[in-house]
Design goal:
- The chain has two helices and 19 strands.
- 30% of the residues are buried.
- It is an alpha/beta fold.
- It has a single domain (25-188), classed as 3 Solenoid (UDP N-Acetylglucosamine Acyltransferase, domain 1).
Length: 205
């Protein structure tokens, strides 16, 4: 095995370990599936007319996604691995959303993921010199809103009815019916609806 094929680990000045490289942890099947999906996204998904949600739902299902017939995936939304995506009824992946679903990403009913939001279900263990991949699922509860350019990290659950403010960085669970904002995201208020909506989205009094 050549040195380029194996992880490298040594010492830099001062005795600190140097960062190395680790082989991809994704299987050949996973890589081939993503290559086919990337081609389908570029040729068939991305150029589709904006109102043609039925067409994009069909393509996502063809690649293993669980997509409700009433969901709204928009043309410029990126999905890393459709087979790891669940998209509920009346939910949308808006313009330029990046759904990096290395682990499962579950989007409930009546959820809005606004333009430019990043659902990131993977990271790296930066305390390990080999920087191994670490993945964890993301769950967005019914009636939640992930606002424009927000970041939701691996392992996070955004509770039902919660709001993640624009450009917020969320690395911990968000309680139900809570509005969070900032970097790092912090609770700023409780979401209170001006009018009741049908269960199960209506918060308890």
């Amino acid at each position: 095995m050549s040195s380029s094929d194996s992880p490298q680990q040594g010492s830099a000045g001062g005795g600190r370990p140097t960062l190395g490289y680790v082989r991809s942890e994704h299987s050949l099947k996973n890589k081939l599936g993503r290559a086919l999906w990337a081609a389908a996204w570029a040729v068939l998904y991305r150029p589709s007319p904006r109102p043609a949600h039925f067409w994009r739902r069909g393509l996502l299902r063809l690649f293993g996604a669980t997509v409700d017939p009433a969901s709204h995936p928009y043309p410029s939304a990126r999905v890393w691995a459709p087979w790891n995506l669940t998209l509920g009824p009346e939910s949308s992946l808006g313009d330029r959303v990046d759904c990096y679903c290395v682990a499962r990403v579950t989007v409930g009913a009546n959820v809005t993921v606004s333009q430019g939001a990043f659902l990131c279900a993977a990271t790296h263990d930066y305390e390990d010199p080999m920087m191994p991949l670490v993945v964890a699922p993301i769950t967005i509860g019914d009636g939640a809103w992930v606002c424009a350019n927000a970041f939701v990290g691996p392992g996070v659950t955004v509770g039902a009815g919660a709001v993640v403010g624009a450009c917020a960085v969320v690395t911990r669970d968000v309680p139900e019916w809570t509005v969070v904002a900032g970097n790092p995201a912090r609770a700023v208020k409780t979401r209170k609806l001006k009018a009741p909506i049908a269960p199960p989205l209506n918060p308890e009094p």
